[in-house]
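Structure, all two chains, one model.
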Amino acid sequence: MAVYTEFNDEEFAAFMAGYDLGKAIAVKGIAEGVENSNYLLSTERGQFILTLYEKRVDPADLPFFLGLMEHLAGRGITCPLPVRSRAGSALGRLAGRPAAIVTFLSGLSVRRPRAEHCREVGAALAHLHLAGEGFPIRRANALSVRGWRPLFEACNGRADEVLPGLGDEVGRELSFLENRWPMDLPAGIIHADLFPDNVFFLGDRLSGLIDFYFACNDMLAYDVAIGINAWCFEPDASLNITKSQALLAGYTSVRPLGPPEAGALPLLCRGSALRFLLTRLYDWLTVPKGALVVPKDPVEYYKKLRFHRSVGDASAYGLDR
Amino acid sequence: MAVYTEFNDEEFAAFMAGYDLGKAIAVKGIAEGVENSNYLLSTERGQFILTLYEKRVDPADLPFFLGLMEHLAGRGITCPLPVRSRAGSALGRLAGRPAAIVTFLSGLSVRRPRAEHCREVGAALAHLHLAGEGFPIRRANALSVRGWRPLFEACNGRADEVLPGLGDEVGRELSFLENRWPMDLPAGIIHADLFPDNVFFLGDRLSGLIDFYFACNDMLAYDVAIGINAWCFEPDASLNITKSQALLAGYTSVRPLGPPEAGALPLLCRGSALRFLLTRLYDWLTVPKGALVVPKDPVEYYKKLRFHRSVGDASAYGLDR
């Protein structure tokens, strides 16, 4: 949530000269996304987002991310569309960083989603899964089951600093999920980070999806599980089944979940909760005190994980069979 | 350079309902200003800046700041114009903070000003000084000569951590300026922080002035001295006399400097350099390591201060007599 890289007048003018966007009218660094530097760019042709990709993004992944947005936008998903330069490239360089300009999407993210929002998000996620078919580049999910143990080990046994006993419990959960993680569910392009921050609404209608920088190839139902964790819990980390029912109804109205996917849902929710627990735990233990990016509380996802462990089958989320 | 306060959907909707701006289309936290939380707000009526005033701003000063922008905008200065609510107030509350909406100004700030920019800034500063006449509220300059010693003392004798010998030298400079500081030059409303960040251009033409949150009543020529320090030095802290000549020519083309003002200019430049040296020194010594707001280098202003001490009279800045 910050601007990490700034640029001077000459390099910005040279960068803009490569695009057919007219003169720049305003450029403001915006506090959106935690990985990259984002600027709201107004030109004679309209509004855009200019992104400078920072160190945590692998430049080798950029053709995937930019190509995916172009692929999805071309199939009716309201997501940022990369603007190609006069030379035909979606990826440029500014201030020594890889940089891209994408279209600006109207809409506001909701901080306290209601069931109507959850239904819209479920449907949008299914549309995204269908629209992802045929996208030719592949990107493995670095934060799926094989990535969790290295992350846990990078926490150096310090999990109990957050909550006594947490280290043992996470270790057991990790072993359990490593043994049981499904491998043969329908797979494709997933967003993998569809939190309320990344979804815009105008009124109660969904108006856009942003931030495709965790998108990858993985099981589609895993994305649904991420959605349940991100949208359907109350601030006290209790599931609101009206919301999860709405999210699932929205999803299945567009793309039905097969019986193996429905059966695996509680396990996928556990895995998704563990994934966010682990990344938050790692950030919590490593972000320097006093930094303006306040790390998010890992305990929230520990509570969600415990809930999912108590679940018998997908009816606990309100999935209609 | 961050968003400190966020708000939820309900409180934002209630806040917006008080204004006649139509529906909100987008709200983005922007990395502008270091004191307050700023959002770029797009509505059906256009673009605006929404500011939530944080702890470092005294709420008692807000009628001065908002009233001043309204006063200046009504006299032809291109500055943000506070939008009044349906109830007629320029000041509201959001998320427990005083909050205001002001108009959005087009333009880009320059990172490496050229002489053309300096001339425009000089003229704009003089127009601002003239337009400030008749503004009925007064606000003392807390960062003028009487505020410097408390700031120096708050550094607790740690100046030498930045540069050996700096503490003694600052102490001597402080005593010198306290004895010689002029008190009887023409006074009025000054901007007091007209750095390149706070001035927008479209091409080489100045298109707007922002950030009036240091504005106050003080000697007008002191604002000119701040401008020279902020705009006319090269990155190695050497004066570029072409730029200072341009700034002064721009200023005097609108408002001539009287002989007492011209005579005091080197002293006012010393004082202004000391003021920014002291605030930077204090921030340098107190901002926690790892914070995303990187404190600015105090040594830059120490070098500028040394330059001004070597100056005989205002001709060193290229002032035509």
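The mean pLDDT of chain A is 94.
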